[in-house]
Design a protein that fits this description.
Elements: H1 2-6, E1 23-25, E2 27-29, H2 41-48, H3 53-58, H4 63-71, H5 75-91, E3 94-100, H6 107-123, E4 127-135, H7 146-164, E5 169-172, H8 181-191, E6 197-199, H9 206-215, E7 218-221, H10 223-229, H11 236-241, E8 246-248, H12 262-271, H13 277-284, H14 286-291, E9 309-312, H15 319-322, E10 329-334, E11 337-340
Parallel strand pairs: 2-3, 3-4, 4-5, 6-7, 7-8
Antiparallel strand pairs: 1-9, 9-10, 10-11
């Protein structure tokens, strides 16, 4: 390092003194739904008293509730709320975030969501990786006609999305009562994409874990969602021991997880999912980068990679789970630019 500095003129660089501060790669939040209209606080209170998801859906709740609010929101409103959420994530050390559409469930609103994310990617210091999630739920106009909705996505929406040249991934909510395995495969094959990550995985089987490890697919786990839903956590320890690459992400969304608390997520991962501090940091940096296809550019402090670096308020990364739920990020360096938090 001293030899490098001797060969650089002082005016060409900014010296940052980081005594007693841990230095880490910028965090990568590889699964969020941060562009949406409206909120669902009433539904959360219903869920707290034990109401089932199906009963909430029958009252017009769930994803369709957010769909209506998002369809009614204009570009500027979605952009303003999205910028606020990016600012919050940035203050917690996130330098790259993935964002999904999926609250329009029609061509026009899906495009608005994706265009908001593309614009924020250009204007905000953070990098935004966009994912098309048109297959998030079946909208009311296609009620009882899920196959027809998949046809609509493939024939009318995907061609327009491709022409935008701003979307990196296509995602599907493959779940009983939403999109079947066959319907999910049909859409993903039409999108011509190789599987990069599999997310949530609360009920993954032992066979599924072995296949994930063998295929090199990143297992993206979302402990804040399990916490918010009072569900068992994904078996992170079993996955890591089986050779899976595990990433951690917030799943920020207005329904099942209205939180992007990176500090709380780290605590949950270490305390309840039995991940070590080293594994949690890896899951939020290089493995998160792999989950969005950018491990060659970000995720580690390495020669040739982008200068996405964070400085903590304490001398060790082990303070992240120890100082439970507290934001320890003091400084963010994004693409070599310095931001004091």
């Amino acid at each position: 390092t001293e030899e490098v500095l001797r060969n650089i003129h002082a005016e060409d660089y900014l010296e940052i003194r980081a005594e007693n501060q841990a230095v880490l790669p910028g965090f990568v939040d590889s699964h969020t739904h941060f562009i949406f209209g409206g909120y669902r606080e009433e539904e959360f209170s219903w869920r707290l008293r034990g109401d089932s998801y199906m009963s909430i859906m029958e009252r017009g709740g769930g994803i369709v509730n957010t769909m209506k609010a998002t369809r009614e929101s204009d570009f500027d409103t979605l952009w303003d709320r999205g910028e606020e959420r990016l600012d919050e994530l940035f203050s917690m050390g996130v330098t790259t975030v993935e964002g999904k559409s999926g609250y329009g469930l029609d061509l026009q609103t899906e495009l608005v969501q994706l265009r908001v994310m593309s614009d924020l990617n250009e204007s905000h210091p953070m990098d935004v990786v966009s994912t098309f999630l048109g297959a998030h739920a079946v909208p009311p106009e296609f009620a009882g006609r899920t196959d027809d909705y998949v046809d609509y996505m493939i024939e009318e929406v995907l061609p327009v999305i491709r022409a935008e040249h701003t979307v990196t991934f296509c995602d599907v909510f493959c779940e009983k009562g939403v999109f079947s395995l066959e319907q999910s495969e049909r859409l993903l094959r039409a999108a011509s994409l190789k599987c990069v990550s599999a997310d949530h995985l609360l009920h993954v089987s032992d066979t599924g874990i072995k296949r994930l490890a063998r295929a090199g697919v990143v297992a993206t786990l979302l402990p804040l969602t399990a916490f918010s839903l009072n569900e068992p956590y994904a078996p992170a320890r079993k996955m890591i021991d089986a050779g899976c690459a595990v990433a951690l992400a917030s799943d920020l969304n207005p329904g099942s997880c209205f939180s992007a608390s990176i500090p709380m997520m780290i605590a949950l991962a270490c305390i309840y999912m039995k991940m070590s501090p080293e594994e949690a940091v890896t899951a939020l940096t290089i493995n998160g980068a792999a989950a969005v296809g950018r491990a060659s550019e970000i995720g580690s402090i390495s020669v040739g990679k982008r200068a996405d670096v964070i400085l903590l308020k304490y001398p060790s990364y082990k303070f992240l789970p120890y100082h439970v739920g507290m934001n320890l990020v003091d400084t963010v360096i994004k693409d070599g630019e310095l931001y004091m938090m």
